[in-house]
Amino acid sequence: MTQPDYVHGYSPREAERLHDQADAVRDLLHHDSRFEPGSRVLEAGCGVGAQTITLARHNPECQFTSIDISGDSLCQAARLVRAQALANVRFQQTDIYALPYPDGAYDHVFICYVLEHLTAPERALAELLRVTRPGGGLTVIEGDHGSCYFHPETQQARKAWQCLIDVQASLHGDSLIGRRLYPLLRDAGLSDVVVSPRMVYADHSRPRVVEGFVGNTIIPMVEGVRQAALECGMIDAQTWDKGIADLRHILSTQQGTFCYTFFKATGRKG
């Protein structure tokens, strides 16, 4: 197995950011993440378990197989599940393009923030559907970095944000994939495809969202591509530093607002 490039890296700070993000948008994304009792659910690309614990808690009568290509991430996820005393999850290190499961092994597949990082999302979906039983379901959640807007907005802040999109594209990922979920799932052969936009809006009447989502999740995500953006010549250091400072100004000014949209798609295998 070859571990693919992950634009945000595998540092302890990135693990913390993933948990902060999961906490900040848990209700928005997962109030309807429910499966039939007794279902066998495959969570593909579970990472450090930030979504795993919510899924397992919400569906105590389901059995989850949570997979990832990173052994270190799986160890962190397993520790988290043990600490939460959740007994309905097992972990396995494997490649999403070559799953070691028979056809139709699962009733439902759940995949979150993964397709955007893959060079061949269509091939991954085909493999995930292979292990889904006929009539079974698929749930996909992805962000769309092109959906972001904020106030105050400066040219430097917008350039720093664009670096996040461009660095991921240079790794053959697609941070704009949220808007493509409907055709992706339809082309994969799913029926009854429904896409639900989930908007996160933050202003200073919502301090927990400002701090938890913008401060602890979004800005660190942008900061994580600094070295790659500078090395590729996408931006100069002075513009970058000013752009990040301007993004951080959103946290401190009462005039600051921020908006971002996730997309949650569901479909059924015919």
Key words describing this protein structure:
eight-stranded mixed sheet, Rossmann fold, alpha/beta, 270 residues, globular, 9 helices, 24% strand
Task: Give me the secondary-structure topology.
Blueprint: H1 12-30, E1 40-44, H2 52-58, E2 63-68, H3 71-83, E3 89-93, E4 106-112, H4 121-130, E5 132-143, E6 149-151, H5 155-170, H6 181-187, E7 190-202, H7 207-223, H8 226-231, H9 237-252, E8 257-269
Parallel strand pairs: 1-2, 1-4, 2-3, 4-5
Antiparallel strand pairs: 5-8, 6-8, 7-8
Helix pairs in contact: 1-7, 5-9, 7-9
Q: Please trace the helix and strand order, writing H or E for each element.
A: HEHEHEEHEEHHEHHHE
State the domain count: 1
Q: On the 0-100 scale, what is the average pLDDT?
A: 93
Main beta sheet strand tally, sense and closure? 8 strands, mixed
How would you classify the helix and strand content by structural class? alpha/beta
**SS summary, helix count:** 9
CATH topology term: Rossmann fold
Kindly estimate the percentage of residues that lie in beta strands according to DSSP. Answer: 15-25%
Low-confidence stretches: none
Q: CATH superfamily assignment?
A: Vaccinia Virus protein VP39
**C-alpha termini separation:** 30 Å
The total strand number stands at: 8
- Computed Rg: 19 Å
Measured as a percent range, the helix fraction is 40-55%
